[in-house]
């Protein structure tokens, strides 16, 4: 009996220690799970089983118990009955993770959208694209490269959901995993950063803002942060303190799953380096930029409308929506949703250097800015875009750049090949061979 007693005591001591050690994480786990359930179900109609097997199939997050309520358009999650978190869905704003102090009955503004159908073929309109066969495309080789991006056995290690390849404005390859289609809305995660950054290129082109000017942050006026420019923020080399880690309680996870106003989290961090001298990837910086965008407009409604009128609806990304935080700010770091074809349109806008079928959104020099390597990034990062200047993908063209997101969301832009390649899924670079995938697609273009 004594041995059994001591065994049970030791067992419960270990369980208690594990729970106590991870207890602070439960708030974040429940928050991640609830937010994902609300977004995935109410935006794309996915079942709870599909969400738990896919979107929430992440270590620790998969411990959450989840549910959603169609009547209230909300989702709730907890871990072992602890730390229940709730996310609400509001048409026009998407899903928002809320806290106990959030007033769900308070009125709110939504973006005004222009969803008028355009009588032009894809990508510039809503009609099917014209049948086009290019003599310089090896379609068999292309098909092999695209097929290889998807799982073909029970291991499910690639976990690709969608691949789209566009050459000279024509879709030359398109494939979806079971349960997904051209109409499925997929989360871009940090690809949203590139959307946020582009709005500054648009304002700069409209001469409403100079990215070389000091960041308009009153709290920074009396210390060395006063020298940080908007360009420094876009290049992620402001020198501000930030920890970007999604496996721990970090600045990034606390911001996304606890903060009421995400635009202020990076703003309140001290400077560790002089601006322009140290590259440090930061989701907080992108949300700070969202806050700076808010300051460019007299009203909150104008801020909401601008993202769509100036960019999203302007290039026909009708499926796209950006979700907001509890304070009504767009989460410019992470929460952009769109169909695969609409994500591809964003890539095409850059392939054409800001000219959308005769409508210029930003200057060609803006592309030079976003593709110029940031000091300290080893040729990997520019102005809110990822680069291949340093040969991170050794078998892909060096002029390739991309919008990247968590779990391997990518919109690749390859000017030298007139290509845009989109891959959306649930695996990162370490598990999915993007170098082989991209080189295979590029190799099909003679």
List the helices and strands in order. Answer: HHEEEEHEEEHHHHHEEHEEHEEEEH
Task: Count helical runs.
Answer: 11
The coarse silhouette is globular
Gyration radius over CA = 22 Å
Low-confidence stretches: 11-21
Total number of strands: 15
Let me know the largest β-sheet: 6 strands, antiparallel
Helix/strand structural class: alpha+beta
Helicity level:
25-40%
Give the rounded overall mean pLDDT: 94
* Strand residues, percent: 15-25%
Distance between the termini: 77 Å
Trace the largest sheet across and list its strands: 6-5-15-14-13-12
3D structure, described in words:
With 446 residues, the protein is α+β, with helices and mostly antiparallel strands. The protein is 31% helix and 16% strand. The protein contains 11 helices and 15 strands. Strands 6-5-15-14-13-12 form a 6-stranded antiparallel beta sheet, sandwiched between helices. The protein has a 4-stranded antiparallel beta sheet with strand order 1-2-3-4, with helices on one face. Strand 14 and strand 15 form a beta hairpin. Helix 1 crosses helix 6 and helix 4 runs parallel beside helix 7 (283-294). The termini are far apart.
Topology at a glance:
Layout: H1 2-44, H2 48-53, E1 65-69, E2 74-79, E3 82-90, E4 94-98, H3 139-147, E5 160-167, E6 170-176, E7 186-187, H4 191-205, H5 230-234, H6 251-258, H7 283-294, H8 300-312, E8 321-322, E9 336-338, H9 340-351, E10 355-356, E11 359-360, H10 364-370, E12 386-387, E13 401-405, E14 409-414, E15 419-425, H11 434-442
Antiparallel strand pairs: 1-2, 2-3, 3-4, 5-6, 5-15, 7-9, 8-9, 10-11, 12-13, 13-14, 14-15
Helix pairs in contact: 1-6, 3-11, 4-7
């Amino acid at each position: 009996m004594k041995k059994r007693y001591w065994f049970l005591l030791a067992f419960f001591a270990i369980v208690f220690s594990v729970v106590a050690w991870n207890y602070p994480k439960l708030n974040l786990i429940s928050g991640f799970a609830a937010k994902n359930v609300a977004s995935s179900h109410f935006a794309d109609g996915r079942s709870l089983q599909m969400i738990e097997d896919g979107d929430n199939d992440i270590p620790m997050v998969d411990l959450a118990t989840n549910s959603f309520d169609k009547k209230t358009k909300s989702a709730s999650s907890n871990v072992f009955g602890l730390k229940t978190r709730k996310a609400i869905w509001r048409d026009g704003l998407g899903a928002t993770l809320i806290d106990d102090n959030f007033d769900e009955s308070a009125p709110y503004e939504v973006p005004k959208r222009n969803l008028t159908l355009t009588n032009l073929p894809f990508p510039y309109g809503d009609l099917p694209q014209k049948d086009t066969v290019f003599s310089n495309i090896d379609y068999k080789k292309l098909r092999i490269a695209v097929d290889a991006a998807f799982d073909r056995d029970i291991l499910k290690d690639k976990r690709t959901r969608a691949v789209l390849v566009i050459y000279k404005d024509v879709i030359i390859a398109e494939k979806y995993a079971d349960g997904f289609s051209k109409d499925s809305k997929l989360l871009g995660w940090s690809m949203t950063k590139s959307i946020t950054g582009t709005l500054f290129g648009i304002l700069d082109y409209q001469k409403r803002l100079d990215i070389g000017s000091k960041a308009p942050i009153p709290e920074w006026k009396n210390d060395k942060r006063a020298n940080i420019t908007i360009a420094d923020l876009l290049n992620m080399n402001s020198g501000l303190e930030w920890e970007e880690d999604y496996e721990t309680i970090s600045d990034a996870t606390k911001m996304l799953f606890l903060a009421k106003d995400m635009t202020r989290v990076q703003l309140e961090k001290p400077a560790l380096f002089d601006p322009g001298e140290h590259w440090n990837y930061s989701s907080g910086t992108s949300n700070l930029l969202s806050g700076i965008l808010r300051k460019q407009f007299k009203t909150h409604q104008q801020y909401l409308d601008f993202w769509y009128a100036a960019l999203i609806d302007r290039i026909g990304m009708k499926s796209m929506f950006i979700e907001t935080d509890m304070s009504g700010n767009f989460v410019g770091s992470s929460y952009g949703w769109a169909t695969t074809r609409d994500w591809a349109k964003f890539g095409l806008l850059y392939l054409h250097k800001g000219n959308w079928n005769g409508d210029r959104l930003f200057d060609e020099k803006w592309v030079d800015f976003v593709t110029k390597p940031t000091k300290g990034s080893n040729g990997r990062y520019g102005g809110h875009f990822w680069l291949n200047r340093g040969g991170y993908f050794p078998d892909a063209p060096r002029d390739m750049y991309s919008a990247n997101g968590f779990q391997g969301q990518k919109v690749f832009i390859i000017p030298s090949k007139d290509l845009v390649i989109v891959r959306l899924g649930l695996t990162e670079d370490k598990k999915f061979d993007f170098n082989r995938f991209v080189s295979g697609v590029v190799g099909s273009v003679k």
